[in-house]
Subtilisin-like protein
Amino acid sequence: MRFPSAFVVLGLSVGSAIAAPSSTIHSHHVVHEKRAAEPLNWALSHRLEGHKRLPLRIGLTQRNVHNIEEMLMAVSHPESPEYGKHWTPQQVVDTFAPSDESVNKVVGWLENFGFSRDKIKMSANKGWIQVNATVSEVEELLDAEYHVYKHAETGEEQFGCKTYSVPKEIQEHIDLIRPTVHFNHRPSPKSTTKFKRAGGLGMPSSSTGPKQSPNAKPVPPSLANCDKMITLDCLKALYSVPDFKPASKKNSYGIVEFTPQAFLAGDLDLFFSQVKIPCLDLSFLHGGSLSETFPQVLSEFGLRLCLSTERSVVVVAVVQTTNQSFDFNGESDLDLEYGMALVNPQKITLLQTGDLVEGAGFDNWLDAVDASFCTFEGGDVASQDGIYPDPLPGGFKGPESCGIIAPPLVVSTSYGQDEASATVSYAVRQCTEYAKLGLLGTTILYSTGDDGVAGDGGVCLNSTGQPVSNGTMFNPDFPVTCPFVTAVGATQVNPGSTVFEPEGACEQVIFSGGGFSNIFAMPEYQKSAVTSFLKNHPPPFTSAQFNNSGLSRGFPDLAANGANYVIGIDGEFSLVFGTSCSSPVTGSFITMVNDARLAAGKSPVGFINPAIYSDQFRDAFNDITMGGNQGCNTPGFTATEGWDPVTGVGTPNVSKLIPLFLSLP
């Protein structure tokens, strides 16, 4: 137990100091964060032992964050004179580094508490401070109590506190502290043998995309059956996709996967041979450097593709092949088969995060593309993210993959969590990182989820915003509600229709996630569109069901087909559904746009939202006016003219998008 030096001056021994009333010690403390939502299916078990050690990570308040939207708009809005003038990594670090005052205040607080300088570490960008301390010390420092929680079905345990406090005079200098109130609501991958996981963060399955249907026949040669089976030809016809022949060597496209989800090489071979793509560039970058056992790695995965060490799949931790089923291979097979095939022979960067023991979190792929965000510098914490090397049996023994590649120019992610499970401080901090990537020129795409206006597994919220089995309040997803990512919803070729007729919102097997954030304010770029929707097509719901303030972030931003995709999976063809289909396909389209701009000597498009909401780009999207996204025992929202919280501004017309983006500076 450590105490401020003032207690030592009074001549108290350590024993008598321990007896000092906590009300005296924390008389100037204020609650900084509370747990966002009590997790379903987890029960409080016991107090965490005081002698155990915690790697406490303190995220300092960053400078200029209040101006980040304005800064991002300057390089992203098509009418801005600064359009396309993306920042350098050093500019980002320098602009948002915490002030010296914040650093000194927080370090002084820790030293006054009793931590010596050698126990206090600071990240290179000054964003994070780490202190290794015992549970008892942390509890005293933060006026908190740490408890262990046990999952009802798996018996898995994790720990956390419900609230924590900091001195009032330093509160403005701290964004968040971890590990504290941030709780991973799902069991880790090690529990999958005992528990059918609900999917979502780390492992999509039967309740969060993609969804599986009975086996499909091999790819049909015509467009006649696109209402029953989506193929590459269907997508090209739906979205006016021109023949693609890469013209730039500077382009890049990244797809994020969370272990234990992993592709099977045989599935990729099956799919690519069927669609007559003879050669794909694929190689592996493992643990931060090209593997010395590169030929053996390729042999293990049995790839029969055209291989080149100049093309890279980045393995942040583990590509597992131990577990083989739709729940383990469906997401990765889908993402790579369509993402790669649409832009072949453009390189694809696979950001494979996590291992079979810890899984992974959003911070882990950010680590890989930004060294300044890595390990404690990014606030990675075991309850949310994979921490490497993993000492547990079967864990990944390699180092944390810190800044091993530059951020790909497009990144697609088909994973998420309920926004209600994230604290405001955590969500805002995470969202800020996506804005920084936008400033660097990267387009970040996230799928919106497959449960309509409900959350993971169809869970909704009660009147206090807590997830409950019989909730009636809509439960938006995260990170898609972050205004600095592009949220991608799902459409369908309506049964009995053709690709030459308008699509509707996806209502087969899944419902396109969409709605309004309970955390983030409406960004400037969508105010006109969203305000018009609320005024001209007011939803038949009250504030008891969704955030109807007219001031919150609406999503999705756009949409693409998410029904009846034919994929190779576990050695055969099958149909899948989900916004998990929509996001990587949209990523391929933006990659085509970037190729054209780079070949013309221009910058990548980066953050696309200000452009796609502008009047200039209106004709480049197919307006979706049919269908809805039911959930929480309601019909949900309804697709209608203009932007709507089911399909956004509509689906892309790639032949129109490319020249429009080419016309910009």
User: Anything to note?
Assistant: The longest helix spans residues 579-599.
